[in-house]
Amino acid sequence: MSLNIALTGILASNTDLGVISDNIANANTTGFKKARAEFGDLVDSMSTEGGGLGVRLQRITQTFKQGSIETTDNTFDMAVVGDGFFQVKSGSQIFYTRAGSFHADTQGYIVNNLLQNVQGYKVQASEPTASSEVALGVTLDENGLINDPAVTPFDANNPLTYNHATAVTVYDSKGFTHTLRSYFLKTADDGTNTTWQIYHKMDNNPEMIDGQTVIFDNATGL
User: pLDDT digit string (tens) for 131-154?
Assistant: First the structure.
């Protein structure tokens, strides 16, 4: 029994040395995160005295601490500052890595050393331009709610207070997208013309923009 206990210690030391050796061997490996071996004692559950039976490896954990950032001569080399991973794709499979050694393949895609495609967002090809006007093409049902909506006053969160709603994407001066929602309220119908009140809402901003009134000709649709 004593020999077996001693052997567990030798095996644990060998495992610990293996983990340390791996850390040293990968000192210059891009994106590598050092690991450490964690051990626990073995206890005889059948013994009333709780005698120890040696040591065992419980797990090998990696330390995802921020490493040093180095400058390279490769345009496509990147590094993750803080938490997070690069997302790469091989076929239909997605993988995550901290290694940012990338290059362009023969088809112009950015890949890593395993030829896995780096995933990301579409690049803004030109300088951001804010939306200056919006054109809406809508069909307003004349047979909707009779004249005024059934519930007043107007509330963007209550569809009973307006007849129709639509949304378009607009851009600010930084190139970021926003959602412009327009709400149409039928306020009058004299048989010839239908009068609509329009309100606008930007993103989730609770403040509404009164779009004044727009009159559509029932015959021509203008």
Answer: 888 888 877 766 554 555 667 788
Tell me the β-bridge partners of 215. Answer: 195
DSSP summary character for residue 222: -
The four Cα atoms 202, 203, 207, 211 give a dihedral, to 10 degrees, of: 30
Structure tokens at 125: 């090809």
Encode pLDDT of 92-115 as tens digits: 899 998 888 899 888 888 999 899
SS3 call for 197: strand
pTM check: above 0.85: no
* CA angle at 172 for the pair 169 and 175, rounded to the nearest 5°: 90
